[in-house]
Request: fold
Amino acid sequence: MNRIPPFERFYESHKGEVLAFLRRRVDRDRADDLFQETFLRALHAYNRLEHGEHLRAWVLTIAANAVVDAARRERPTAELAVEPASEDERPALEELAPLTDGLPPKERAAVVLRYGYDLDYDTIGAALGSNEQAARQAASAGVRRLRKEKEQR
Amino acid sequence: MTGVPTVLDERFRAAAAASGELDVAYDVLDDTPVGRLLVGVSDRGLCRVSFDPSPDAELERLARSFGPRVLRAPKAIDRVRRELDEYFTGSRQAFELELDLRATPEFHRRVLEELNRVEYGHTTTYGTLAAQVGAPRAARAVGTVMNRNPIPIVLPCHRVVGASGSLTGYGGGLDRKEWLLRLEGALL
Reply:
């Protein structure tokens, strides 16, 4: 299993891609703000990671959630649709994407981080900018929703 | 790959340092009179000064000792940088920095604390230090402690010489030891 690299290495490896990802989704000023927010959230959760795998997917998921949260802060009542990433910029959720596409963004992220990347709820909560309890609820709500969809099919 | 503008990069590094969530903030000082130095601080104080740093290996070591949140954050070491500058230009004889020796084994820490009492411009010997920590026959072990000193210059292992007065050895190389002792007027 991969050891967790020093944060400097992680940051240097992914900062360019995170900024590019954000700039494709929001305007430049907002992307700059969210860049900082993304890596601060990652820093906050970093020492609770249990291994160094899928860090790219992990940080892009955090970035995608920062975008969603920012949009929500701006227009709290608006319906949110996260643009699916195009082929060359797969953010994070690809492996579980076909299953989880229909979920609201928070639930989708929680499900993928829990079951796709095997992170604990504490880490997921930190990555999503909330807490362990909220992450657990989001993941279980996501799983319930998936189960219901499957039954209806 | 998008280049991250310097302003944005520096802003994040400063914010990370201010967040209090770094295990170690470090920077590399490129042009000191004794060459390149890597300097690291934790929330408790100065935890590392390294000569000729090979950053890869050094960052791994810091992460193992203090935790993985190790980031270059120049602002966080401003105070250490200033005191070192003053020392190198001869205007400072004693450092006023908190030190973090939590990753250092107990015996090493005792020896280093004793070492820290050796004043600017003075020298002591391995044997004397050994006696001072109550292990008079451990001169060789004291040599090992000096060699692994995590905070050279500030914890002045350059002030420790052989019983005959010979410089003996230095983790950063004898040239540097000699330079530091000359700076302090302990060598003519």
Notes: Chain B has two domains: 6-88, 106-183. Chain B touches chain A at residues 1-4, 8-9, 11-12, 15-16, 19, 21-23, 59-60, 62-63, 67-72 (CB under 8 Å).
